[in-house]
Amino acid sequence: MTLFKYPFLPKLVEKYSGIPISELSAREINLAKERVIESIRRGVVSYPSDYEENVVSYILAMIIVASIGDQYLRRRYSLAEAKTAYRYLKDEEDILEVAREIGVDVKERNRGSFTIPLWEYLKLSKTIRDERWKLVNRTLINGNVLLSRREVARLLMEKIRSEIEEKVSIKVENIPSFLENWVSEIKLELEKRKKSEFKGRIGGRIPPCMIRIMERIKSGENVSHQERFAITSYLIGRGKSIEEVISLFSSSPDFDEKKTRYQVLHISGEISGKRYSPPSCDKMRTFGLCYMDEGCKGIRNPLQYRGVKIDRERRSKKQSKREG
Ligand code: SF4
Question: Which of 48, 29, 71 has its CA nearest to residue 181?
Answer without folding.
Answer: 29
